[in-house]
Amino acid sequence: MTPAPLAARLGIPSGPLFFPVTAYGPDGSVDLETYRLHVRGGVEAGAAGVFACCGTGEFHALTPEEFEACVRVAVEAADGRVPVVAGAGYGTGLAVRWASLAERAGADGLLAMPPYLVRAPQTGLVRHYRELAAATSLPVIVYQRDNALFTPESVVELVRTEGIVGLKDGHGDLDHMQRIVSAVRTEAPGDFLYFNGLPTAEQTQLAYRALGITLYSSAVFCFVPEIALACHRALHTGDRATVDRLLDGFYRPFVELRDQGRGYAVSLVKAGVRLRGLDVGEVRPPLDEPAGDHVKRLAQLIERGLALIEEAK
What we know:
Elements: H1 6-11, E1 17-18, H2 32-45, E2 49-52, H3 64-78, E3 84-88, H4 92-104, E4 109-112, H5 122-134, E5 140-144, H6 152-159, E6 164-169, H7 174-187, E7 193-196, H8 205-210, E8 215-218, H9 225-237, H10 240-258, H11 264-275, H12 292-311
Parallel strand pairs: 1-2, 1-8, 2-3, 3-4, 4-5, 5-6, 6-7, 7-8
Helix pairs in contact: 2-3, 3-4, 4-5, 5-6, 6-7, 9-10, 10-12, 11-12
Protein name: Probable 5-dehydro-4-deoxyglucarate dehydratase
Pfam families: DHDPS (PF00701)
Organism: Streptomyces pratens
């Protein structure tokens, strides 16, 4: 049986979206077998989709050969149970190249990162993503953040572009997102996907749900899927007491710890995976490892979060 299109498979938020870290061995090379265990474990824990080699997976640090190998392993580990979306980025030509590697590796879709470094006008941004979508058979989710911020009118143009199926928001301006959602609903209605893509998205998901945005990425799922799933269930069922308990006791302190260091949105998550027993190695430069006392605080937070979900049972 042919799998349903990506938009249909992701449209029902059955669980958090999993952005696995990329595993490295002691010599710094990609450790594909550990990566396979990490991805398979996330799928079996209840992830609704795997976003391989994206921001948390250090897309910026991977060679083309490593990228293709990791995407292929993620596809094998998912084994058709959930869709696998791969990162693609840099300039238009390189984004197209990464898309071709992801397609060859069997990915179900692409998360299109912001173009490298430049601050482009809206016309240039729209052209960039349209050319990427035209060059691949894979459906494209556009990632709004940093130097790729769109007017509502530009998002309407992207929605009307064949092959572009969603927008992941990593900017966090809720007024702006409301105007985008309204413009698309008015000018280009249809089954377009929206994602909360802020770091530690659970912290803002109550606000995004009020806009009708139920899909979100969960870095916490990488290392404590139990907590991420409990929060997802509580959000989905309207169990505000559990949501508030997890926000107050785990997510807010985690965000405060994450904000103690540059790059902690990746390196602290990777430290968390190691704390839970899977040696995925350290981050690659230019990122650096979190301070030792911060890792100790993370271990305490994990224990606290797990105790909170036990109390709720």
